[in-house]
Amino acid sequence: MGLGAKRWTRRAGFVAAVGALAVLLSACTDFNLRTALPPDAASVQGQASRNLYDIVFVIGVAIFVLVEGLILFAVLRYRRKSGDDELPPQIHGNNRLEIIWTAIPIAIVLSLFVLSWQTLNTVDAHTPTPPVRIGVVAYQWQWQFIYAPDGVRWEDCGAPANKGKCVTVFGTPPAGGDRSNWTPPTMHVPVNETVELQMHSIDVIHSFYVPAFLYQRDITPGRDQVIQFTADRIGTYRGQCTQFCGLYHQLMEFQVKVESNADYVAWLQQELTPPPSPSPSGPAGSPGAGAAAGTSVTLQLTASGVAYDKTDLTAPANTPFSILFANNDAGIPHNVSIHAGSATGTEVFKGEIFSGVDTRTYAVPALPAGTYAFVCSVHPNMTGTLTVK
Amino acid sequence: MAVSSSALTPHVPAAGESRALAQRGISNPVLGMILFIVSEVMFFGGLFAAYFNVRLNATQWPPFVNEAVFRPFQIHHEILLPAILTTVLVLSSVTMQLGVWAIRRGDRTGFLRNTGITLVLGLTFLVGQVFDYTQLGFGITDTAFGSTFYTLTGFHGAHVLGGAIMLGVVLYRGMSGQFSAKHHDAVEAVSIYWHFVDVVWIALFSTLYLL
Amino acid sequence: MATTALRPAATYRTGAYDWLTTTDHKKIGILYTFNSLILFLVGGIFALAVRTELAQPGLQFMTESTYNQMFTMHASVMIFWVVIPFLAGFGNYLVPLMIGAPDMAFPRINALSFWLLPLSALIALLGFPLGGAAAEGWTSYSPLAQSKFSSGVGTDLWIVALTLVGTSSILGAINFMVTIFKMRAPGMTLFRMPVFVWTTLVTSVLILMGTPVLTSALIMLYIDRNFGGSFFNTALAGGNAILWQNVFWFYSHPAVYIMILPAMGIVSEVLPTFSRKPLFGYKAFVFATAGIGALGFSVWAHHMFTTGSVYLPFFSLMTFLIAVPTGVKMFNWVATMFRGKLRFTTAMLFAVGFLSLFLIGGINGAVLAAVPVDYHVHATYFIVAHIHYVLFGGSIMGIFAGLYYWWPKMFGRMLNETLGKIHFVGIFIGMNLTFFPMHLLGLSGMPRRIADYSATAGWNDLNLLATIGGFTIAVAMLPFLWNIFITFRGGEPAGDDPWEGNTLEWATSSPPPPYNFDHLPPIRSERPVFDLRHANDVPALTADH
Asked: Residue A311 class from Cβ within 10 Å (0-12 exposed, 13-18 middle, 19+ buried)?
């Protein structure tokens, strides 16, 4: 048996070498053991899911090791020796074995089912009066988070009567897809409080996913979704839309900032206080309403069907001018922003984002002569050329 | 490794010869048609599932008509014409079966007569269906109600048309003497298809007009 | 090597006209095979485009629009024009031979079934020059797939193409079922049929009952897009976006069993031959196959767990349960190898590779049956890992096993074993390099169907690794293509039965004459050729059952 054993050990050594190589390869990458498992949960429900995952994972690995081990053993042990033409015993089956390896898997999957159902009841449980309610509006290709005070529905926050009562976080995708200087829109929530999200989509199916909560929910137009979570770890956690929603699906990122109750209240308060009225000078980003002093030129631009009605605008050089911007898309946020050179160039002006159907007049500061692009901060595909001369 | 040619090796049957040998029972074409009908049942099943899904999810049926977006429509559910069409189609199934029984007996004349009547009744149904479409006050674009109604009845009508074409072929082949009591698989197959088309109509009529 | 044919083996140097008009199931099977092989390369190029873009963060090579077309058409091509037809092609070639029949029940409809495939592939791919191919994902959810959000003609072409593919499939299924029920040679009872024939039968039932529902969904979508219908539009017009998902997945879930069952059948033929033992638990196999088929219709909504519109416990339970018959098969295959005398030809390597890789795909799938786990990894790269372990590690490995195993029968020449082994090693390593990291990417929260990703999310190195794996697979295909080329030029002649097989296709010449058999051996078990070969051996070896 000397030759057989040598061959067997040689093969086993080869398998071990491949395994070591795989481990070495993975150690050289930015993969650390953390990414082999779900993230550490930052919510109570997420922790329940994580506990379930750990159990399921262990069982899965055990089954893999067992069956893969049997395969490897068979492959190594039962290789035909050269010159051996004799038939092995022609075994057709064994009913007892069939029963055993049917019954045991049934028992395993039934237990897993019961376990997962119990966890599901924890994860999807709802309390009737959550202390925090946030409206979430998903649209191509970003998010709005709307905080309404008691007595106001988040859907009514846009009405003139409720002006100044709600806090709205308006998400815009990174300009030109460049994430390097971009912060995703942030949903602030207090730690250890049940937060309810009332989620609505205005166009296609999106999905609200926070990996640290181990949770996502599809938002289908016409079927608003209500979910609850209780974050139990302070920190900032990334989120992203997971339901493919069209051209810029990959830009639909956001983040959830879990902070102490005091910080949360302070943030809300700060957002509700209107900012001091801006001076008309300053090159970058006057959110202005009303025509700038001394302007004679007013450009007209309309957004309809997620598109501008013009692709070319002209403005005088070195003179402030206005843009009368009409947003005719009901419920859809748009604005006009101006970038130097092309849509991915430096932003020199950013008008206030607002939802249709509505009109704003932007006061654009003086720009030197040249070619600029005007772009919707929310929809990067809405773009045109602004010639300043 | 050569195969021994002895009395042990049986005759290999040629395609279609199966009826003469161990595999008796329904012929290949008839089995094929039955399986085809199973697939057609699933096709209509998908359409019916859509109908029930949108209907049960709607707060009212027909769904709310937002007059800012859609032009309003009225549902003229005159049940009389569809009921007459139902009778026509059921009758056509009866005559179809009479035709099948006739050719099984070898009665070519009876078979041709009944098949001819079936075809005429089928075409009558189609004409009546088209006329009914013109009388209804709504179209396919009028909410999910219009979409499901016209898709369901339209595809049924298409199947009736297909069946009528098949009846035409069978009639032509029958008139040129291709069928006998022993060889008439095509007639059996088409008759099964025709009955299926009738059953689907009964389900349609009940669902769309009665429920 | 002796030949059984009375007349010389048919050569395949007959003209193009013959190939274009043939109704011979063997030629049609070969046409299916080459059509799928060509489209496998096309779908593979789309995959390489995806991986190239994702290798590093930042959009370097293409716009989002192009990327979205790439992943949509990659999946569509691979599912509908590669895996399903590859397996249908094997069925076409082998089923009549394996049951001792001279051809399929409806040879002309058989030819129609094939020719619908290259036609429909062209229609779907026509989207590219006409303003963009379909780009909503192969799942084409509404409202995104509605004309308001996807206005190009590419999506409509995709709908038409899939309707034609569905027709081809359904006609094929009818053909298989009538052939199997009605044209078996005397002595070939249902429980003596090769397992591959059983898997083809159950697959045909799934196709027959599932595909028409997809057809209805596609027609409804077409009406929505082109005739102002409101099936899947928002509640304003009474339509229901979730309806699309239900109708679509009612077919598309059984579709995955359509894609795996015949591959399992192939493995069930290859393993016994190269273990020199019968398949362990033949009857258990048959029942497990039927069980998977039946259960397969009851799990579709597990693709919709995160919609909030599904009765979760039922679908979770059924999804867990379907792991059981799958496990039964896995154990039976391993038991087939136990105490055998294993010969590691290329076909056997691919079959054993199937076992290892499908095992991983089965386990990570069973994990998804636990709803809270699915809440975390749905629509992430974990799902992409699962899909590819079962479809590549499962179906494609099974297909390659079948190609190496039956190539000698189909063309009368042996494929080169050295090149075959290089092919196997490259595919096995490449496949794991590409898809194993995706488990980790998904668990850490990387969504699927994104053209680009944040450079600070920690996903950079694993994506690069996956891309290297993808190119490894591409390179590994080269020895296979070269192998085919040199084999046609002058490969070693195969003879009737180069592998000492068990089933009837090995009882005739390679390739078989047009009428398949001059003589059939006596059929007294599920291994008639084995019985014949050992007719003079110790009687205990050949059980009569």
From this structure: exposed
**Sequence ranges of the domains in chain B:** 25-210
Query: CATH assignment of B25-210?
Result: 1.20.120.80
CATH match for A298-388 among 3.40.50.300, 3.40.80.10, 2.60.40.420, 3.40.50.2300:
2.60.40.420
Cβ contact (<8 Å) for B12 and C236? no
Q: Supply the DSSP string of C321-357, one letter for each residue.
A: HTHHHHHHHHHHHHHHHTTS-B---HHHHHHHHHHHH
* Cα–Cα dist A245/C359, whole Å: 33
Q: Which of A169-178, B195-204, C134-143, C219-228 has the lowest mean pLDDT?
A: A169-178
Contact assignment for C212 to B8 by CB distance below 8 Å: no
| pLDDT surpasses 90 at A28 | no
Cα C461 to Cα A31, C451, C464, C467: the distances in Å are 7, 16, 5, 10
Q: C-chain residues within 8 Å CB-CB of B146?
A: 229-230
* pLDDT score, position C538: 59
pLDDT of residue C340: 95
Q: Where in chain A is the domain with CATH 2.60.40.420?
A: 132-272, 298-388
List chain C residues with CB under 8 Å of A89. Answer: 277, 339
- Interacting residues of C75 by C-beta distance below 8 A, sequence separation 6+: C137, C138
Query: Cβ contact (<8 Å) for C209 and B46?
Result: no
- A383-388/A370-375 β-pairing: antiparallel
- C246 shares contact with chain B (CB less than 8 Å): yes
For B92-127, write each residue's pLDDT tens digit.
999 999 999 999 999 999 999 999 999 999 999 999
With a pLDDT cut of 70, the percent of chain A lying above it is 85
Inter-chain contact A242–C359, Cβ cutoff 8 Å? no
Beta carbons within 10 angstroms of residue A164's beta carbon: 8
Q: For the structural domain made of C18-541, what CATH number should be given?
A: 1.20.210.10
CA distance C230 to C221: 9
User: Which of 319-338 (A) contact C at CB < 8 A?
Assistant: none
pLDDT at residue A375 tops 60: yes
Any CB–CB contact under 8 A between A68 and chain C? yes
Q: How far is C129 from chain A (nearest CA, A)?
A: 19
Chains that touch C (3 or more CB pairs under 8 A): A, B
Neighbours of B, requiring at least 3 CB pairs below 8 Å, are C
**pLDDT over 60 (residue A213):** yes
* pTM of the entire predicted model: 0.89
Q: How far apart are CA C59 and CA C133, in angstroms?
A: 20
Region at B34 (left for phi over 0; alpha for psi -120 to 50; beta for the rest)? alpha
In sequence order, the β-bridge partners of residue A253 are: A240
CA distance C277 to chain A (A): 5
Predicted local confidence at residue A85, as pLDDT: 87
Chains with 3+ CB–CB pairs under 8 A to A are C
Site from B18, B35, B41, B149 to mutate, C interface, most C CB atoms within 10 angstroms:
B35
Q: What is the DSSP letter of C493?
A: B
Phi-psi group of A271: left, alpha or beta (phi > 0 → left; psi -120 to 50 → alpha; rest → beta) = alpha
CB within 8 Å of chain C, chain A residues 132-151:
140
Q: Taking Cα atoms as reference points, which of A280, A190, A188, A173 lies closest to residue A232?
A: A190
B9 vs B35, residue with greater confidence: B35
Contact between residue A339 and residue A375 where contact means Cβ atoms under 8 Å apart: yes
Whether C320 and A240 lie within 8 Å, measured CB to CB? no
The domain defined by A132-272 folds into Immunoglobulin-like (2.60.40)
Q: By the 8 A CB rule, do C470 and C47 touch?
A: yes
CATH of domain A26-78+96-125: 1.10.287.90
Residues facing A350 on adjacent strands: A337
